[in-house]
Specification:
Oligomer: heterodimer
Helix content of chain A: 25-40%
Helix content of chain B: 40-55%
Distance between the termini of chain B: 21 Å
CATH topology of one domain in chain A: Histone, subunit A
Distance between the termini of chain A: 39 Å
Number of strands of chain A: 2
Largest sheet of chain A: 2 strands, antiparallel
Shape of chain B: globular
Largest sheet of chain B: 11 strands, mixed
Number of domains of chain B: 2
Largest interface: A-B, 52 and 68 residues
Shape of chain A: flat
Order of helices and strands of chain B: HHEHEHEHEHEEHHEHEHHHHEHHEEH
CATH class of the largest domain in chain B: Alpha Beta
Radius of gyration of chain B: 21 Å
CATH architecture of the largest domain in chain B: Alpha-Beta Complex
């Protein structure tokens, strides 16, 4: 089962990646071979298996603000574009 | 013997007896790095000035009689997916090439509090995705036993740093074998603790339900020392578990191999396992029997699906976790490129990610998006989750009757660089390591002789929160193996 070019293009769009023609071709083959390998999961009888309560349960933090020991300037130093203490982004629409 | 060849235990003793200083050990490590890095490429960043400063501070603490812990002054290497404040932290990716964290990962904080000297950040597969360290943006790391071979991965840099005496010990992370398999390939000890024992806060997430930080060391005893220093409850990681503190407090002392119940995986000696690997592991198992251990073959039917479970759950989580790299808040951004035309915000996302991620990351992101998309989520992701629960239940049953399970760590010894160009063939090498991640079990790889000059690893896996018991048993088996050689 090979993924169609359209399927790969749609997925790449969803995860915000641009693929070259060569990558589309290669990934669709490689992903198909991985998918055919994992296909066998369907053979396992999972009747009666619940997904709730068997894993470690979530531990929720209190909805309370706490002071952050890192300054705003420090946190922003890794941002590619900033202005007046804000992260600057391109316009959403052209 | 140079000081960089010492174990943690030996360094601690020498420091306590004032036979040498932390600066002496640290300088020997730095010299070893300088001499070997051209060939090995185990480190992405070593900041000499910062390293020497830490060593000097440790020495002055000791001179005043105020050491912070037994680890005070011991040089540790850190895998480059753990944040160290003011140290570039790249996760082996171009997308984080210039990223300098403004905080320390929990484990790094713990090490700093214990006075350890952070010697550098080690090379790794991009975002810990790989079993060979070949997918690093900063070039492959080489195996010190044969420079034409891979060190394993993804914590290849950490394993090599320890194996080649560039550091006394190191931290790695293990999502499907990334501590144990490189330890096996490089002939050192690698321990993946119980899931939840070590906080993942500040570890750049790959697959959050599987990721776990652990030590890579020269001996099992050293692994225990380092583990005790990093295992603690952390409220900033919602999967950090208070049971870790209790676990670390347990002292199993010296475990007698007599009457120890050992399960040996039937498939551990099946097809696909190299003859040499099989032979070394079987010999060790025979020795354990002579020591009085009760060894029985076990067959966990559902384990044949473990790799399939892993290669669904992991990419789904990767796809979600790597969504944060978008060229906006931190990391590589096309906004800084002058010759690329950017029309809008979507362009920033797509072009930054496209240029920032390598092939393996892209492949897994797309695969994960597929396996969790509408129409396929039941068939792939949810089915895999359920099979994972089943695997966990089967292990629970086994551990009612057995102390530990033994198998080879990897089906082969270190393979040649570039040998596994097809992703699936690389993935199949994770067959023995992945189950412990799926079931959250503590699991350790210890050296088990060599085949044609290449190290073989023996894997010992135990029940959740029996980390100390696994370590004690590993120590006893390590002794048996060293008597064998």
């Amino acid at each position: 089962m090979k993924l169609s070019k359209e399927q790969i293009e749609k997925l790449a769009g969803l995860v915000r990646l641009e693929l070259s023609e060569e990558e589309k071709e290669r990934f669709s083959g490689e992903i198909a071979s991985i998918l055919s390998y994992v296909e066998k999961l369907g053979e396992v009888d999972v009747k009666g298996i619940e997904l709730d309560g068997v894993e470690i349960s979530n531990i929720y933090g209190k909805d309370k603000s706490e002071p952050c020991e890192i300054s705003q300037a420090e946190l922003l130093k890794n941002a590619p574009m900033t202005e007046d203490g804000f992260i600057k982004v391109k316009s959403v629409l052209e | 013997m140079k000081l960089n060849e010492f174990t943690i235990k030996e360094v601690v003793k020498g420091l306590e007896e004032k036979r040498f200083s932390s600066l002496d050990v640290t300088k020997d490590c730095l010299n070893s790095i300088k001499k070997q890095e051209k060939d090995l490429n185990a480190f992405i960043t070593v900041t000499e000035e910062l390293v020497l400063k830490q060593a000097k501070e440790s020495d002055s603490r000791r001179a005043k009689g105020g050491t912070l812990s037994t680890l005070d002054g011991v040089p540790v290497a850190i895998k480059d997916n753990m944040a160290v404040k003011d140290f570039p932290t790249t996760a082996g990716s171009k997308i984080l090439e210039d990223f300098v964290p403004s905080y320390d990962a929990f484990v790094v904080q713990k090490l700093k509090e214990s006075g350890a000297v952070i010697i550098g950040k080690t090379n790794m597969d991009e975002f810990a995705m790989g079993s060979s360290t070949e997918s690093s943006h900063f070039g492959s790391t080489k195996n010190p036993h044969d420079l034409e071979r891979v060190p394993g991965g993804s914590s290849g840099g950490s394993a090599v740093a320890v194996a080649a005496d560039e550091a006394i010990c190191a931290l790695g992370s293990d999502t499907g074998g990334s501590i144990r398999q490189p330890a096996s390939f490089c002939g050192v000890v690698g321990f993946k603790p119980t899931y939840g024992a070590v906080s993942r806060n500040g570890l750049f997430a790959m697959a959050s339900s599987l990721d776990q930080i652990g030590p890579i060391t020269k001996t099992v005893e050293d692994a225990e020392i380092l583990f005790e220093n990093i295992c603690d409850y952390d409220k900033k990681d919602s999967t950090s578990n208070e049971k870790g503190i209790e676990t670390v407090g347990k002292n199993n002392g010296n475990i007698d191999l007599k009457n120890l119940k050992v399960g040996v995986l039937k498939d551990g000696f099946g097809d696909g396992v190299e003859d040499g690997v099989k032979k070394n592991v079987v010999e060790t198992v025979e020795r354990l029997k002579k020591e009085g251990a009760i060894v029985e073959e076990i067959d966990i039917e559902v384990l044949k699906y473990a790799l399939a479970v892993y290669y669904v759950l992991m990419p789904v989580e990767v796809s979600s976790n790597l969504g944060r790299y978008d060229g906006i808040k931190y990391g590589y951004s096309v906004e800084k490129e002058k010759d690329i035309e950017i029309k809008n915000l979507l362009d920033v996302y797509s072009k930054s990610r496209t240029k920032g991620f390598g092939a393996e990351a892209k492949r897994r992101i797309i695969l994960g998006a597929y396996a969790s998309s509408a129409g396929y989520i039941d068939q792939y992701y949810l089915q895999a989750k359920k099979v994972a629960v089943k695997i966990r239940q089967e292990f629970d049953k086994i551990f009612e009757n057995y102390d530990v399970i033994i198998s080879p760590t990897a089906p082969t010894t270190a393979f040649k660089l570039g040998e596994k160009s097809d992703p699936l063939s690389m993935y199949l090498g994770d067959i023995f390591t992945v189950p412990a991640n799926i079931a959250g079990l503590p699991s350790i790889s210890i050296p088990c002789g060599k085949v044609d000059g290449l190290p073989v690893g023996l894997q010992i896996t135990g029940q959740r929160w029996e980390d100390k018991k696994v370590l004690s048993i590993a120590r006893a088996i390590e002794k048996v193996i060293s008597g064998q050689e």
